[in-house]
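User: I'm curious what two different proteins look like when written out as structure tokens. Can you demonstrate?

Assistant: Sure. I'll show them one after the other, since each token string lines up with its own sequence. Here's the first protein:
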Amino acid sequence: MAKPSASAASDRPTTNGRAAGWMVYSTAALVALAWVAAWQLLSIDAIRQRLGDLQLYAAAKPMAAAGILAGIATAVHLAAVPVASLLTVLAGVVFGRWMGMGIMALAATIGCSLSMLLSRRLIGPPFAIHLPEKTEALNRRLEKHGPYDLFALRMTPFIPSAVVNVLMGVSTMPLVTHAWVTLVGSLPGIFLLASAGDAAGTVESPGELLSPFTAALLTILGVLPVIVRMSIGVPRRRLIISGCIFATVVLGAIVARVVIRYRAADSMTIAVQELTNADYPEDPSSRSIHHGKYQGRALTLVKRDDTHFDFAFEPRHSHIARIVFKNVDCSLLTPNLPEWVKGKSALERIALASRQFARQQVRFGGSTSPYLEVTGGDGFEKQLLYSAELVKNSLHAGLWEVMLYTHERGEKTLYYQGWFSFPLGHYKRLFEHNTGLSYWKHFYYLEHQSVADGQQVKLEDLRTVSREAESRCVHDSNELVFAAGEQARRRRLTMGENVRFWKDYTESTDVRFAAFVAPGRYRADRLQGHQLNRIEKFEKALTRQIVSCADREPRSEIELVFANSRNGKKCRLIVSGFQWDLLPAAPIEEYPRGRYMPMGLAVPPIFQDYPELARSAPNRSPYFAMFVDEEGRFLDPHSMGIEGPIVHRDVKYPNWVHLYLMSYERHALVGHWIIERT
């Protein structure tokens, strides 16, 4: 019997060839499945919607949650799904900067190494057969400069890691070398994204958190080792000249960025962003019938002295009036420190952060106000401008608003709203004028909405307790939810079904709130989670007589103690520094007449008239409200989903006060307690 020829044998697939083919098909199918799953489950909107659940699970089972995230991130790197940066931001939000960085660095190293080995098994042989010269050239290059080149590639955000994995896979670079260089080269980018997530407290697009300047700087730092390696053997004179040029370029870029970002002049023209109905369908304001008729303004900001500015809103159309807010003391709208917390780092951080991230809406009066100048236009604004208001919104430093109201149907109605950036150069100077601190020690969290979560609080540094007693308190978690004022207008910004009782907020994580995003608007397609389960189980109320460090006057304080039924952890709400008998008296249905305050320390009321603000600067206020855990550590109210309390006395029984908690961005009330003074 004749033996088959060698050529015939070569025409038939071998067992190894069939196995390789099946491996290719299986890998392609798994990668496709991973992409489909990531598209459905790992989109930014999907993660935002379940962020509260993820945080709760991580708090209850941190090691399991870390392992799951590491496994998902490893699979993402292995399958080359482009969501690794988003997962890194998520890791920073859920686990914090350092633990999040560690989880994602480990996952990136393992995932990229496995991807490299898979590429070497599937792509390496055909690449070597069909492109032998290029393969040999690549290996020669990597034998000499492999770690330097790989480090530069890993440091460069513009080059996808999957491309680098394939490139290293067709080479002969040792696995150990690939792993440790990947770890070192990935750390800076992972650190920045995890830090940004930790600071923001919510999941944002990595493109928004990692600026082009930062990405370019990472690229330069990545290329630096390659340049150093190539400089070996170069004459010293040429090396020194090249190094000086390189350092000058890098330093010049940094200086240019700082100068541009913090530019400030005595007179500046600033763009005002205006949104149409189509741009902003979620707007909860009570709008005038004239809304949208007076669009088209620019801001001229004029510095009058160290703290006072004119805000001149210049019209671009003849029917629009020129409106000037005259001689505004902007030190009252920027962070300041009470004297009694200076030198106490934890309280300083809480005071500065809560001051920046609490909304401050200041009313300057109508067209006849001495603080305004209204000229020109078709006469509508000169005659019917009811209230002109400046707003420092609750986002990062420099984001402000202007709101103009008229009076219709017996209520104040909004006819114009514009958003603008108060120059960071002036903001920096005002901050240092107010606090006596270097802005550069605090700029990151002020400009990136970083919270003061976990700071150890010594309440005795804020007040002295003269008397304390447990008080009778009425709270029914089965009480029907109610709303008035702005909560009635904002009902559509709370996303949840069958929310009928207070317990529907605290016992469920399905309720979400429309997020407040730059420049200062609500987005129903970006949902904010919460941790209201922390106040799920009310335990007791305490009332205290205190002496405030602000004015050494006797004042009152309320403490509510809560427990989380899932993990048993307790937290305390302290609302302090008010005078019981001076609280407004109102029936429940008119609760918006109560004292309407944000959480924090050295914060003003959310809504305030300018003359009142000038008389009572926030840094002299004895008021503070905060949540602390069992160990006395500050709890971030933003993450919990709490904006602040409303407090008023009962109409019939003045020794009883009603305390309501407002949800994130004041969209809803989430609880009601009635406390007796003892």
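Here's a second, unrelated protein for contrast:
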Amino acid sequence: MNARSQMTYSSPTSTGSRSQPIELESLIALGLLVLTVAIFGALWHYYAINIPKWDDHALRAFLYYSDQEPTFSGKVYQLFRQHNEHRIVYDRLITFLDYHLFGKLNFRHLMLVGNLSLVGLLAIFMVILRRHGQPLLATVPVALLLFNLSQWENMFWGMAALQNFSVVLWVLAALYFLSFTDWWILALASGVLATLTSGNGLLVWPIGFGLLLLRFDEPRSEARPTLRPLIGWLAGAVVVVGLYFTGFEKPGGIAYVRPDAVDLLKGWFAVVGAAAEALPTNSPLSLSILLGGLMTVTTLGIAGWELMTHRLAIVRVFERLFDRKTFVVSTGVVFPALTLFFWSSALFVLGTAAVVAWARTGFGAELLITSRYKLYSLTLLILLYVYGVVKLKAQPARWLTLGGVFGGLLFAWFSYGAFLDEAIWWRHWLTTNQFNWTYTVHRPVAKLDPITQRYTSPAPAFYDPALRTLYKRADQPPMVLTVTKTLNGFSIEEQTTPPLGLHDQGAYLVARSRKRVYLFPVWQNQRSGILGRLLPTRSFTAGFRANILSGELEAGTYRLLVLTVSAEQPYGLHLTNQSITSAGQSGDTTTKNW
């Protein structure tokens, strides 16, 4: 077995004067790690709700179409069936298992499995740091960058958690096995999982092949270099990629808007630096572009320096690969495992960011720093940090570790200030959507279609005890709303309602006609300035705003009311001075593929 496959940890000195501080530091580090993950898990448990969003409905549809297939081959087809540009086999397998284990599909379970991928990523970086003799404290910044509220969108969305978190885990696991061990078959399995989780998992195949080429001439127990890993990886790539594109159809109805070169470069930097959105700034997009540019230049600079350092070894590997006379005996060219892992992982992150920028920049640069892409920015920050800690000498590495802990704590705290309102609004949006598709007539009678009833159960929601209130006459003092007609609907503001809580409490808009009632979430106003970012629970102030799209309403005229939910007075219904008229859904069938 190659020496890479052996775990090598540097042991701290066992003298009494040194062991006690080291043990204390390890206990502190362990406490910080547990606390970081526990806070993340507690927030997830507090805000996550078993209600589907967008692509989640496609997973429920998979169960239905799979049950309609009379043959095994038909069921396999449904498992591998194309979803947009992806083959979401992993997502569907977890969906299938959850439904058959629990009797109903539970989207919180899907979120949980997806979020556990972050634990896997933490484990990979922890093992790498320990391989290079780094203390447990060096892992704390990694955890703080992974487990924070900047991940809110993927955290609370079943399909997104399974896809966007898991694909990064499978790719980095494959690259770890290829860089640090001889377990290329495990890397192959991870590559298959990555490809069957998300489209960008396809990047693992060319990157992994490059890693195996660079490791081709390493000394092994065999007398001569072996092509078995290269041939096995190439065969696996041909089979998996070939099957992926068999019957593949380009998603139709997507109005792509191609950016020019400058906007594309800015978009690329924005995706790479999207972590900066958590920082207190008046221009998160500009700061993300600036940070992304700095991270990209730093990454390419490190990669370029390493390439120059190892240029002769790279040339020698390719000469030996194609020279039959010198092929018979290994000359023992060994690249540092961390260098290979850094090159390959950074290439995956930068390549994915480039694809996202190419496909999404035309729809608006702000979309590029959305939470669902944050993990790529955070992963590159982690890669740069781990590389620096391992490569620097002892004292500078120590200062980088301590700086990473302090900076990670600050970043995590800022993320809770920046995105707490998003997490609250997301929960409110999901619960009001569930109400709108459940109660479709002008009385509190649930009407769910048979397919929904068969595969999922409605989540208990704040409005369950308030159904009578929603359909009766308003009994609370009137509120003054300002309604502005927009291109696609209505913008609504109110200036006096105080913040009522941080969970299901708060104000909700009620749109009521003779045919039915709708519920809509609102954004509670927030304090401006740094104080609101430093104290997340005190960041809210009086008043709220909301947007209602005309397409969310059936055609008709609706009187607007406000439902308030609080601990002191559980439910209150307020009249307002406004009504809105909707023409119903438009005839625009353009697919928004994000």
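A detail about the second structure: The first strand starts at residue 476 and ends at 479.
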